[in-house]
Amino acid sequence: MENLLRKGVTEAIRSLYNVSVNDDLLQIQKTRKEFTGDLTLVAFPLTRISHKSPELTAKDIGEFLTQHVEAVSGFNVIKGFLNVIISSGEWAKQLKIISEQKEYGSVSTGPDASVIVIEYSSPNTNKPLHLGHIRNNLLGYSLSRICSTAGNKIIRTNIVNDRGIHICKSMVAWQLYANGATPASTGMKGDHFVGDYYVLFEKNYREQSEALVDAGSTPEEARDNAPLMLAARQMLLKWEAGDEETVKLWNMMNSWVYEGFDVTYKALGVEFDKIYYESDTYKTGKELVLRSLAEGQLIRKDDGSVWIDLSDDKLDQKLLLRSDGTAVYITQDLGTAVIRYNDYHFDRHIYVVGNEQNYHFQVLALTLLRMGYKWAAGLLHFSYGMVELPEGRMKSREGKVVDADDLIDEMTATARTMSQELGKLGGYSDTEKENICRKIGLGALKYFILKVDPKKNMTFNPAESIDFNGNTGPFIQYTYARIRSVLKKAGETGISFGGENYDDLIPNPKEINVIKLLNDFPSLVKEAASELSPALIANYLYDLAREFNQFYHDFSILGEENKKVRDFRLRLSALMGTVLEKGLWLLGIEAPERM
Q1: H or E element: which one contains 306?
Q2: Is 46 exposed, middle or buried (0-12, 13-18, 19+ CB in 10 A)?
Q3: Residue 28 needs a FRET pair 20 to 30 A away by CA distance; which of 44, 120, 215, 503 works?
Q4: Running DSSP on this structure, what letter comes out for residue 555?
Q5: Cα R_g (the chain), whole angstroms
Q6: For 46-81, what is each residue's pLDDT tens digit?
Q7: Cα–Cα dist 488/528, whole Å
């Protein structure tokens, strides 16, 4: 519809002012809800052509459109804004145009498409995934689908933080306290098993530190000299030196964690094109740091540690290598970025990481630019807010987290209970019931998290998320299932539709509202990709589902006596289902055929 108006405005300017206008001067947008109209032309940029005021320019163009463009039935001018009213009949034609597009809302990925690497998940191998990781994974995976649908070439990556002091803590604790226990011998999932030893390390380390403080040490001295911490640091040095027994233990414990991660990723429905490991990339990072040091771009301090001075960029000095030569967190990120660019020659690299790491990614990009990597200007930190529980923040070191596996199971169980109470599972086999409950539970979880502006902190409330009414995933899924039920009944009664011409059909206002929303879908996908906001898709789907349910309540579909109107409403319903399903897919949510 916007293209139709753009073409009409171009012709109006040519006829009225004898000028061929550049397309970038035509600013067309949806009319704001408080004004009458469907599309709005911003007239201010056109005054240099018309040599008239914005109001008179808009009036000239509006009058031309109503006289020469059949689709335009009226207009009004508010200051320099031309609000154009599209005729009711034109919306019926638009429905046919939309329904004939096989991949409605998608832009094909051409040879010149931007290459975007999206990194998400980034777990540590000392603990299982938790609620914070869930928000990270859902945001990253949804962004990958949205940006791909908008015509970009997407590479989904994960960096596993499988080395460093954190995993050494779990390793030390296992050596001291496990007595040879394994996930197999205890019946525990591997990532949970290793995570318990990390928590145990922190508990005993805290007790040792407190004892040293009681004996006269300062808190900092106590933290540095506690026997457990000294053992963990020694183990890190041995690991980086390639000590055979240390590396063997590291491989064994990490393998337990990876098996656990794979189960969680599969349950959550996310995947990756390439997984990188810090144990590999930190080596490249160290080489970059040492080379830049030799080139005079970095500073070696008296204790042997290596730093970059970013004070000219209004930041401070940042440690890149410790005094004992071991790498810090940013060292591996430097190496990973270079390796990934060599792998994919990306145009943009999006890091999906919480907002507590804003400073880290500022430093990362500036450091790489200082090292001469111009492509680092394409690094983008997708900074999202923290997810909390009604009772407050989670604390991994104390084991006070919402485990991802437990939450997924809890959401499925809640969906099962609510579906049974509402009587929605009658006539299904046990397998069908379980599959539907899984889709509803995960749909509720994903939608509740993704509907929130990513930049904002949020509180996750499982009970609110799974309501079958209101702005929830199950409400949208149920609307899709309702549409599928209508279409199935149409098929069972021998009703076919799809080839009709609706040029002489005038939709009612409710039908027009639905078509207008459907018409918005492609531009919304484009906006969501540009703004990196799955929330735009989520809340659009709620508006769409709500509009359809009102339409379904007010007007008969299969019971409509006028065949042309009936078939028009069936086509409208079918397209609603297609867009709801596509929109849910963009969020990583499955659309059940039945509920």
Answers
A1: strand 306-309
A2: buried
A3: 503
A4: S
A5: 29
A6: 999 999 999 999 999 999 999 999 999 999 999 999
A7: 32
Selection from 330, 170, 325 nearest residue 241 by Cα = 325
Query: Two tokens at 317?
Result: 């000095």
Helix count (H) and strand count (E) of the chain?
Answer: 21, 14
Q: How far apart are the first and last CA of the chain?
A: 35
Average confidence (pLDDT) over 148-157: 98
Give the tens place of pLDDT for each residue, 431-472: 988 999 999 999 999 999 999 999 999 988 877 888 778 899
What token pair was written down for 167?
């995993």
| CATH numbers and ranges of domains, the chain | 2-86 (3.30.1360.70), 120-398 (3.40.50.620), 446-586 (1.10.730.10)
What is the amino acid identity at position 461?
A: N
Element (H, E) at 83: strand 81-86
Q: Which two tokens stand for residue 338?
A: 């270079």
CB of 10 closer than 8 Å to CB of 69: no
Checking 487-493 for CB contacts under 8 A at 24+ apart, the result is 487/570, 487/573, 487/574, 487/577, 489/558, 490/558, 490/570, 493/558
pLDDT higher than 60, residue 397: no
Q: How far is it, in rounded angstroms, from Cα 160 to Cα 258?
A: 9
8-state DSSP, 87: P
Please name the amino acid found at residue 268: L
CA distance 500 to 565: 10
Say what the pLDDT of residue 391 is. 61
Residues of the chain with pLDDT > 90: what percent? 81
pLDDT on residue 215 = 95
DSSP-derived pairing of the beta strands 387-388 and 379-384: unpaired
